[in-house]
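Methods — Computational structure assignment.
A single polypeptide chain was analysed. Its primary sequence is given first, followed by the predicted tertiary structure written as structure tokens.
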Amino acid sequence: MKQALNSSDKGSTLARKEKSEKRRKQILRSAETIMSTKGMDASISEIASDVGVHSSNIYHYFKNKEDLMFSVVGDNIGDSMNELEEDLKGIREPLSQLGRFIWFLLNRADKETDITQISLFQCRSKFSFWKHEAYEVHIRRYFGIIHRILKKGISRGDFDEALHIPVIRGMIAASIGMGNLRLNIGESTTPLVDDFDDLMDLIEALISPAPAITHKKQDKEQRILEAAEKVFGIKGYDDSTIQDVVKEAKVADSSAYWYFKNKEELLNTCFIKGFQRINDGFDASDPGSGKHSEQDNPLLIKLERMLTDFLMIAVKHPDFSKILVMNGVYSRDFYKSKAYDPLQKLFARIAGSLEEGKSDGSIRKEVNGRLFQNMVLGTFSQSVIRWHIVENVSWQQIQYDVKEIVRYLLKMVRSPGDKKER
């Protein structure tokens, strides 16, 4: 009799757990739909109403609205990774596994637009997301799959044995993420899967076991801008105020409003000035001077310097690099602002160098310039998050990573005829 009761109790407990998990999934599905358009402006009450429960029931499963939003992304990624793991089981060759991984993610992004909106524009711009369980558990698993595939490819001799795996896996993930972002802001109208062949062309060139190649007193406005970079980079744009900035700049409150009408204009001006710094660095780069790690071709030296100058802002201006990623790349408003135009011009210069290289034979004619730009900006964004937000990497390590990233970027696009041993 006692055993029968115990069996009944276990069955009842299991049923309650199943019911609870079902309800949790219902809440997540509803939150995904509503938050994809409203973001943090969505209310707990409207999500609860959509599910058909009282608002208090939501807090039984999630701490607050932010926890709910991050969990939407985390659970979706977890489910997708389970599906992907099944897909990979029948594939033995690492390159084929990598191709399947990339195809799966491109196809998923094309189909699951709601979750993409939340992940790109609501979660990634928040410091707290990168510390949340959604990132720690599920997105790290995503990177773990890439890591496993790359390691297997290296052990079999299919991939370059000297690959810097953390950098390479970040570059691959970043290129997919940036293509997804540009699709969602309307800069691309074709499905992401249409880019699969061109993207794989870049990645195969990146990981292939090719022979290694040896390698005055500030004015007040400027003080305010530098203070804004520092404050926004440390506290986050959303949690900072104009008062925080003027305090850091050691100027009167009214000074900021003399130059900038509001915090948003201050942020956009930080971007514009920062891009001008990079542009000036491009102009100052002299292909005829200094040591170069890759080759003697002047055009490739120029491209190497441009890529290095862009990536090195993470070392020279770490706070700017953080706000560029958090409040620029992962902010929908940025792409509608006057600050986006100078960034496009910077990348147009890189694209111009690629086209020059195709003409003189130093760049492979198969290289898709748009996808290469996605790879550059995406890798920068992913790396800044790893360097400055998730892992707090030393500046020496960042410099080493930058050198490796640039080497890999050039390896992707360089014509075989320019692969000189140094």
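Note: The first helix runs from residue 2 to 38.
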